[in-house]
## 1
Amino acid sequence: KGLIYPNQDVPDDVEAAFGEVFTSLFSLFRLMNGDTSIVDLVCTTVIGRLLVVAFVVLANWAILAILTSVVSDNMIASSRELEMEDTRKEKQIVYERCVTRLRDLFESIDADHSGTVSYQEWEALLDNPVMLSELADATNLSRA
């Protein structure tokens, strides 16, 4: 006796499929995996049909919510990785520009083209406000 069969005895096949919690869970598991023959046992009454519909709707909604969550999480992680990669590439480009600017600056300071900057050439750089500003800008340092 129960909600589906209030005034009569529960049929044996329904009792076998839904008589205990674990057998009920397994029967509902079979339903969610495409075995609709289990539904025929309880769809003999209106309440049984309503319970089956409610279960299928709620179970499908739960699965859809889980799948949506997984997909959203993966999309967020992928977006974060792309942003990090873009940031890394931008920093690499800025770094390479700074290196090029410094190389050009030191080549222009190296008046005797020796490949090194002498003390006198360095002093000349420090005395030239335009070159000093270029050095500070290329290294992202302040002039102070």
Note: Residues 94 and 138 are 10 Å apart (CA to CA).
## 2
Amino acid sequence: MLGKTLVTKQTGAEGKPNNILLLAEKVSIESEKYFAILMDRGSGGPLLIGSKTGGTSIEDIAAADPSAIIKQPVDIKVGMTTEIAEKMATQMGYTGGQIQEAATLITNLYKVFIECDCTMVEINPLATLKDGRVLVCDSKVGFDDNAQFRQKAIH
């Protein structure tokens, strides 16, 4: 895999060079949820999107049950608050101590979104593991090309 061209649905037929390999802990997933932060023109700032269901495309989830999609705008001037993060975690179906764990994760993802000039941070799945931890298992991140001068390490 390393040093080869990776061809997937996301790369297209031409593929992408694979010059870096990241290793991660093997985990046992109990359930999967969806979480994203997008820059939303309609609300004029970041929009949190979540669902109790993950592991499949958000478009399929929305088509099957539009009420399964949770949307929470974030005032760009105020930013993420504990209340917003905990509300989102609760609406996504977390209970007990997992609410705080998920809220901390949501807060940290928001911090990355703002500090790295992201246009999108998509987590699918946001997994609850069999040992009770809440963990990002896969993600997709988009960056604002207009912020390239601030984000030289990313671009």
Note: Helices lie at 58-64, 82-91, 97-115.
## 3
Amino acid sequence: SFPKLENLKLHVTDLSGTIPSEVGFLTELTELQIQYLSQEDSTIPTELGNLSKLKFIALFGAYRGTIPSEFGNLQNLSHLYLTSPNLSDHISSELVRLTKLEALTLFTTSEEYDFSEPEEIRSFLLGR
């Protein structure tokens, strides 16, 4: 355990597996960067929403599923970068609660990602 850990950066060419949910116990983290999980069934753990001091998240890899709605709890988050060919579903309405967000980058090549709901995008972008 690293109770005072503030920055966690993992940059590995062929990292496999999932982000362990225990990362959610690193309550002093202000910056989290994980680049590259090659296993395509990895999901973004909801426990990351417990990291209330996070200001910067960058996750680059092969994640499936949605952006956890728990990310809406990250009230200090100013930068969110998610890159995965497999993200799906929609932009969580909970992200509107990120009032300190200055930079948002979502990149996916998935045909499943739903940007077809103009009202959802409008409310996300203008809903502050």
Note: The radius of gyration is 14 Å.
## 4
Amino acid sequence: FKRKNHPRRIISERLLAEYAYLLQPGTGLLYCITDVKELHDWHVSKCDAYPLLQRIPPSEADADPCVQAMRVKTEEGQKVERNRGSKYHAVYRRISMEQEETLSLRVTASNFFGSVETATTTTTTVNGDHKE
């Protein structure tokens, strides 16, 4: 969906780290809603791959009053409703600090959208000096 617009999207690779930094660990929520299925799938793929965000189950998200407000109270939501269009949404929670520590996450450019790599420390001895 219009690749030239990727850098301007509200959900982008570079903005996810900022959102995770700003969201309260364990309780902060990130809401994604659109009437374009392809864009929704793109949002979900990026957010699902980001290790500090955890998707809220659809049943819980559907019960969230913020989701209901976005679907029917916003100008865009009302326009889509008038045109009998579809709306797609997903909600993500910032994982807690405890979850982050348990996972020992190390987010790098190489694992940002791949599998989560756990942090490891290698100790070597060079001429009697320990280096990590």
Note: The CA atoms of residues 61 and 103 lie 25 Å apart.
